[in-house]
Write a structure and sequence with these properties.
The structure is a homodimer.
Chain A lengths: L4 H8 L3 H9 L6 H14 L5 H8 L4 E6 L4 H17 L3 E6 L4 H10 L6 E5 L5 H7 L6 E4 L11 E5 L1 H14 L5 E4 L6 H16 L2 H4 L6 E2 L5 H13 L6 E4 L2 H13 L9 E6 L12 E4 L2 H17 L8 E4 L2 E4 L15 E3 L6
Parallel strand pairs in A: 1-2, 1-3, 3-4, 4-5, 5-11, 6-7, 6-8, 8-9, 9-10
Antiparallel strand pairs in A: 10-12, 12-13
Helix pairs in contact in A: 1-2, 1-3, 5-13, 8-9, 11-12
The structure holds a DNA duplex.
Chain lengths: 355, 355
DNA sequence: CATCTGGGTGTAAACGATTACACCACTCCC
DNA sequence: GGGAGTGGTGTAATCGTTTACACCCAGATG
């Protein structure tokens, strides 16, 4: 099998303790001894055994990341943000996906014991209770876009200002003169989707009572996938009177919808205005370029990691925080605010954190 | 600290051995005893300690994935494929990114010792030698799109048929009547980029000697990023005579280039035909939709994981294989093969594995 | 000269699990 | 009734590290 510290010690003619000391740079070692040991290490290609080490030191230098699905640009960006912050502090990242049934998430959670020092959980579908029950309370956890109701205060949490972003986008579309604004919803059980829906409804309500009566009819269901956006686009075209603007609860669905509209020969934004949510990188490269609510995705990951590092540093005795990251309105061609040459009318309207 | 097997044993009034037997379902245990132990486990919320367990059992049920960068859809797709296959077999995935300098990759490699049972390394930039030197030879490794020269036979390897795909695409463009076909190259040190370049050059050469004299002038450098594609697009517009077709060594650069062309009011495909490589999911949603060389990305990850599982099952005593995954030509609107309504002229031309 | 100091080193006990082996109490069978 | 099984359990070694503690041997100090 693999070479262990004992064999190094044997070869160098010293005890394992001394070898350990030169590896970790702890305690005094004579220069000559150090040289001999280093030589043995190199010659034998010795590499310390991570599991053994973390068994005694009680830390792993690894953080776990739990994601509901490894699909799409959103998650890859989050991971990138996390990995970046993690590596900067000498941590490794253990990524695990799960499909949202309770049994599986419990299994994954338990598998983390002894392998990670902390956890970042991104789970818009599963509530914090399930986590609570399956984790030792000594383990630092940061929740990302996860519903925390009531007792969630035992975890740190970061979430995106979904409500505020949706609200702002709908108001923007209305300001452009649209009165029949449709929404392509996200999945029912997803907390992001619910918040965006809430933002949409409240924006319409804030625009006057007569609109308020209309909105249920202008909501079309979707599940965040491009395909569901495509289906929604087709259903939308059959509605009469046809909506003059469509707000998709994420960019993937907006893209699917755009595709459906184009197939039908409907022009965007001339015939129908379109907007999405997330502002994934390709949004700007579509044509017309897609207006969207910008979410600083990678930054979200970075923030989460920073919070986790902080928890780790204070041995989880720190104050728990619930943080909301603001979103930004990005107006491009697809909602017809100006010309539809993508690059010329891009503008960012910063928004506060009111939510 | 966390609750250990000893405390469970104490509470249930049995020895740790019996508790272990209940947990792992090994050996006979009286029904009554089992019940008592299970009760203690539940009450104490006991979860076995992963590191301790893997120290003695000598396996971790975890595979490591090393990626040069966590950026973009390509990598997220690969991870998705790997994770899918891994979970299906009860393995976890430890993802780590690195920036391509040798020191960092060595550090990451060493950190894996004792934490993983096997490794999938995706490293188009770093050669296999460095790996060889920093890994115990008992560790199963699958290389993905990595250069293996000479002695690489000690690792399994999977790679994409870059050469064949590029060759086919250039031939296709030529068949459409283009004679001035430019290439936006990928980074010099990247093995995928090099193979695509080789395919491009050989295709031109195969088309006749007079073309052969031209090609060096029609190569523009890039680095696989959208931004470099954008720059390349601008340089391309200044060339005279202007190329009639552009083949970008990946889709990201094609997108950047498309953007540059559009800014300049140059129509695609009427004025300039455009094609990419990878066929990332958004390719079909651009307008015009992007012709590309399809690479089955997630499948690549899945295959790699399957090979790794096979190696694991045979304790790394299996036969090493070098496999080339075929690519497929996907003709869409951007290269002007027919009309440019995306959905109507999409076609896949299957290709063999000749390379 | 005895004592102290401190650098350099080894011994052995952890860490939290798994598992070979031994043991005991039965039943079964000749 | 004495072995041979067999189901149920405990003891203790083991995995590869780290680290508290003890030890030894200078040289310095009183």
């Amino acid at each position: 099998m693999s070479v262990s510290i004992k064999e190094v010690a044997l070869k160098a003619g010293v005890s394992v303790a001394t070898v350990s000391r030169v590896i970790n740079g702890t305690g005094p070692v004579a220069e000559e001894t150090r040289r001999r040991i280093q030589e043995a290490i190199d010659k034998l290609r010795y590499v310390p055994h991570g599991a053994a080490r973390s068994l005694i030191t009680n830390h792993t230098d690894t953080v776990g990341v739990l994601l509901p699905d490894l699909y799409g640009e959103f998650f890859s960006e989050v991971i990138r943000g996390i990995d970046h912050a993690a590596r900067g502090s000498g941590y490794h990242v253990l990524v695990s996906g799960f499909h949202s049934d309770r049994a599986e998430i419990e299994a994954v959670l338990r598998a983390m014991r002894g392998r990670v020092d902390g956890l970042i959980v991104l789970s818009p579908d599963v509530d914090a209770q399930t986590l609570q029950r399956n984790l030792p309370e000594t383990l630092p956890v940061v929740l990302l876009n996860t519903r925390v109701d009531g007792e969630g205060a035992s975890f740190d949490a970061i979430r995106v200002d979904n409500h505020g972003g949706a609200f702002a986008m709908v108001r923007h579309l209305a300001a452009l003169g649209h009165s029949r604004i449709a929404l392509i919803r996200g999945p029912e059980e997803n907390v992001d989707a619910r918040e965006r829906l809430r933002g949409y409804r409240e924006a319409l309500r804030s625009l006057g009572a007569d609109n308020a009566g209309l909105f249920p009819a202008l909501e079309i269901e979707g599940d965040f996938s491009e395909e569901s956006g495509h289906r929604a686009g087709r259903r939308l075209l059959k509605m009469k009177p046809r909506p003059t603007a469509v707000f998709a609860a994420n960019d993937s669905m907006a893209i699917g919808c755009l595709f459906a509209l184009r197939e039908a020969g409907v022009r965007v934004p001339e015939d129908v205005a379109l907007a999405g949510f997330d502002d994934i990188p390709i949004a700007r490269y579509l044509s017309p370029s897609l207006s969207s609510v910008h979410v600083p995705i990678a930054e979200l990951g970075t923030r989460a990691m920073e919070r986790l590092l902080h928890a780790l540093a204070s041995k989880n005795a720190h104050e728990r925080l619930q943080e909301t990251v603001p979103t930004t309105l990005v107006v491009r061609g697809s909602c017809g605010g100006g010309t539809n040459i993508a690059s010329s009318n891009e503008s960012k309207l910063p928004r506060g954190e009111e939510s």
